[in-house]
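Reply to dn_fold:

You asked what the input looked like. This is it:
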Amino acid sequence: MIRKIDRDYHRFKDIIKGRIKQNLKKYITKGELVGAQGKNVISVPLPQIEIPRFRFGDREMGGVGQGDGKVGQVLGKAQEDAKATAAGNEPAEHALEVEVSLEDLAKMLSEELKLPRIQPKGSGQITHAVNRYSSIRQSGTEGLRHFKRTYKEALKRQIAQGEYNPQNPVVVPIKRDKRYRFWKSTPRPQFNAAIIYIMDVSGSMGDEQKEIVRIESFWIDTWLRSQYDHLVCRYIIHDAQARQVDQDTFYHTRESGGTLISSAYKLAKQMIENEFPQDQWNIYIFHFSDGDNWSGEDTKLCVELLQYHLLPWVNLFCYGQVESRYGSGQFIKDLRDMFPADEKLVTSKIEDKEAIYRSIQEFLGKGK
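and this is what came back:
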């Protein structure tokens, strides 16, 4: 039986989730959730939602203090200060921060963008043991005693021995009647995913472009974590040279230098060969750049790396071109010309933060 307070609490949680879904596009494009991430939950600011609380009623209430109060009577210094303060004519904006699990957030994203569930490639070569209580034994700890099976054994014994009285149906188990749950380890396929984030940090990529990359990467991460048992992220930044960095460095490196995109693709190729065997990992690469590259020759080298090494190995290679006043935007045109029909290569133009919503859908909408 569900208590009324539990029913009201679940109804309040449903209202909160509905409000978040209603404003999810705003949260996606503005990045309000990215900085509020905890271990497994997100703190979401919801305006105009108040936490339900008890209030004292006015029944049988007397005045204030000793005896009845008068209308307009000032009580204490705080009230004097409040009275002296000029009144405003605008309603107050009440904001409540509520915690939402990453799993719930991924589900909302899926429903909002109509994202299909991912079908992992491979056969799940990596396995881990799952313990299930699938059998019964005559020995074990009391915490694992199976009461129903114990009762049945005791009942059968008493009937067989003529001790059972239907008029007084008392069944008392003895030691040999007791039955206990016992677990059995069974190997279960575990699908793992590796995400390699690549970002151009050359002189033409400013703070605004990197903020767009940060927001979009957060939502991509949230979705993919809901699809796989185990997710590993690697980060590569490049200008004229590429290097592997941690997440904090990836998002906060200052822009400088020229652009040589092939250096990042070579490092990604090396990383996959050394760390992520293709038959055991589902691999995703997300590359963000403003579309500038050093030369046409380097673009040809990038195409070769994609064609013969990266695309055959990955589930998805996504190239997001973040618009910059300094970038030429040529690289996305070259990719679209060279790979017009390859489903593993997805390109997206990200003109501003408002385009993040559409870009996520373009990248993840194929269920790869």
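Residues 77-85 have pLDDT under 50 and may be disordered.
Hope that clears it up.
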